[in-house]
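Researcher: Please translate sequence to structure tokens.
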Amino acid sequence: MSRAAPRIALAACIATCCARAFADEGSVQLVDGAGRELTAGICVTCHSLDYIPMNAPVMNRSGWDKSVHKMIDKFGAPIRPEDVNTIVGYLTDHYSGS
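Model: Translation complete:
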């Protein structure tokens, strides 16, 4: 076996994984409402939008507020202070289960 074979196999594996990660991204559509574009535009810079409906059943306003602040404080999310209430309000109004 050539020395390049393992590298080629690894590259193929990585390409396959990346293709799967992005293949279904267009299917997640957030509920229409005030703040949707801002929320989607900010959230998608770091993760897939499917995290929002996936977490919704266990979230309320307090949970979304903590989550948004965690994204800012721990992960450096580019959320301006004046946008926090709009994002938390949108998530609370459309994606709260508890």
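Researcher: Any highlights?
Model: Residues 5-23 form the longest helix (19 residues).
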